[in-house]
Write a structure and sequence with these properties.
heterodimer, A: alpha+beta, Gyrase A, domain 2, Cyclophilin, 7-stranded mixed β-sheet, 4-stranded antiparallel β-sheet, 29% strand, B: Cyclophilin, 2 domains, 7-stranded mixed β-barrel
Amino acid sequence: MIKNILNLGDAALYCDFGQEVNKDINSQVIKYFKSIQKTNIYGINNLTPSYNKLIISFDLKKTNFKNLKKLIENLDIKDQNNFKNDKKEIPICCDENFALDIERLEQKLKMNREKIYNNFFKKEFFCYMTGFIAGMPFLGDLDTNMRVKRLETPRVKVPRGSVGITEQFANIYTFESPGGWNIIGNTPSKIFDSSKEIDPNLINPGDTIIFKKITKDQYQNYNE
Amino acid sequence: MNKKSYFKIIRAGINTTFQDQGRKNLYHIGIPFSGAMDNRNYLLSNALVGNNYELPVLEFAYQGPLLRYSGKKMNIAITGDVNFTIKRNSNFINGICYETFTIEDGDELDIISTNKSVYGYLAVGGEFSVKYQFSSCSINTRANIGANKGKKLESNQKIELTRLNQNISYRKLDYINTKIENIRVIKGTNFDYFSEEAKKTFFEKEFTISKLSDRMGMRLEGPKLENIVDTNIKSEGLIKGVIQVPADGNPIIMLSDHGTIGGYPKIGVIISADYDRLVQLIPGSKIKFKEIELSGAESLFKLYELETQNLISQINEFN
């Protein structure tokens, strides 16, 4: 449930679901997000679900904080889990040319690469949110023995398709972008497809993701 | 058959993009609003040439494009604070903002520079024929979406125009952009992460706009703001106007092409009424933040909107 609704500036509601990052709280956020999306409330022009917050942006010409807050507080949120979440498999190639930080991870985690990859590939990930750049999924949770900080000096350019880990999370760089996550491989899969006006994201909040290791040949001949 | 009208880009300028109202309801997949940075000047440019206010325009920053026109007589209007000329045969016509000019086949429109401001807008009496993506033509160079494959315009490109307005009468508005020094801010959701001194500093001292500013964000330099709780928060949504403070203590203001999620504490949010004038401030400008309550910000926005509507209605048409 929403613990508190504050204003973020004059044109957004900041809905606080708590401090922790876990699947239960995040599922609540996603439930509200999807319900509000379906309800189509006048004036709302954007929704940003994250680990434990939901930001509702609105057009100040059409409504205001006070009115919307009342509407959201009285919203009937479906309690049954009737929102369909997908399970998807994402291929990754972990060739040395792609696994930019595997040596650093071997040192920091005190584990050899075989072990690191074993731990990574046996994991079933949950998508908490997407964003920062278009389509980038924030996936969790890595086991405690796999958790490592960001690079001390972030890369100016992380190649498109890079799969990175930091703390309890994994993500995929949908575009070449600056970034500090530890890169362990690269996916040939189109995670964000701007040619699709509807559902351009392959991975959405609430989805379950597993990664599958592919060879360099499979990577080069990859066809969606 | 009429031949098509178009502009040939002789010089693209520094950051020339197509923009409109931007795209909504896509934050959750990582796509920001984008759209014209200075919304009032965008609307006014379209209003001056007699267009629907929400049509695409060319936005330029600092140095604008040099365009050679080919086609039927057409009205153009430029808004902002912009130096430009129109070269016809070997004569130069000095351009003036907030009035229409009728351009002819072979004319060269040289948008030389913005004057102590960042953004300017070129609207044509007709339509730029551009591709829309997610209901907007706005070019988002970070995600490569919008017109021109989501990339800024380059030299030698052609810009095609369609549905030219028959009416090419002269239209004009008496208006001068006002500068802003005091930016009004509502306290952010992490205001209490900062020391008592930092809170005071934030609302009392001057900050300088850094050169590292673009359509995504505006970085500020000045007194460092000390965080006494945590220099990171769990990543959460951002909106335009949010002022984040990373560990180095220098504030960053999120602008129209911002990343949709961020993990730095939010000390404040710029009010909607001050956004258009904020984005026009050039690097080196000094600003001060003034605290305001929500109800005050709401009234100021109503007033700002009303002013914009009044300006549109004050555009005079001459025959």
